[in-house]
Amino acid sequence: MFDMYDNVTARLRAGGDYLWPLALRLIMFWEFWEAGTGKFRGENWFGDIPWAESQKGFPWPFSTIGADLNWLAATWGEMAFAVLILLGLFTRFAAFSLIVITAVATAAVHWPAQWGSLGQLWQGYVVTAEGAGNYKLPLLFTIILLPLLFHGGGKISIDHLLLKLTGRDSCVNDRFGDGISAALVFAVLGVVTVFLEPAWGITLFVIAVLVGLTPLFRR
């Protein structure tokens, strides 16, 4: 019985190496390409969002370059990185870049300007805006992008093709579960949150540095 279960799950993992990264890449390509082309056509801009005046605006350092330039960068960034995600080319870099774009956009127009408790913050976990924020979709997009950042674009990707052409495709099975690995996780979570709640992000960055530099965790 256990052997049968292990054989089935081993085959599911093998099939999943092809299926789930491609599925995530396709849906993320469509979502960000649609968002980028919408902005390119003059839709979904900051000034057109009815609840924008109640939000905090773009976080630092993006607040120093103006809303128009921010949305121009977001427009081309969403389209360019969406294409990279679709192709599976530089997948981790593209996923990380889209996470940053998503976090900045969330801070600008989706995150509640004020909240006094986790209960109030949770009220913003919705699709429509009612004064408490509406960060449900950005959060879901970020969660979908995280596997692409940590695991890559899968076997149906240009990244994997390049690994095979350079004789390095066996390295996809390498795992180093040390302090550096944990530090990278905390650093990524810091990037996700620092634009929304700077204190959270800075705390996570500090933890990342401590974990990465402490010899005890690096073994």
Produce a short descriptive summary:
This protein has about 220 residues and is mainly alpha-helical.
Please, could you describe this protein's structure?
The protein is mainly alpha-helical. It has 2 domains: 2-174, no CATH class; 176-219. Helix content is 64%, strand content 0%. It contains 8 helices and no strands. It has helices at residues 2-40, 67-87, 91-110, 118-122, 136-151, 158-165, 179-194, 198-213. The longest helix is centred in the N-terminal third of the chain and has 39 residues, at 2-40. The chain is globular and about 55 Å long. The protein starts with a helix and ends in a 6-residue tail after the last helix. Residues 46-55 have low confidence and may be disordered.
Q: First CA to last CA: what distance?
A: 37 Å
Overall average residue pLDDT: 83
What best-fitting shape do the alpha-carbon axes yield? globular
Strand content: under 5%
Order of helices and strands: HHHHHHHH
Oligomer state equals single chain
> Segments where pLDDT lies below 50 for 5+ residues?
46-55
Percent helix, as a range, is 55-70%
Structural class: mainly alpha
Q: How many discrete structural domains?
A: 2
Total DSSP E strands: 0
Task: Summarize the biggest pleated sheet.
Answer: none
Number of helices: 8
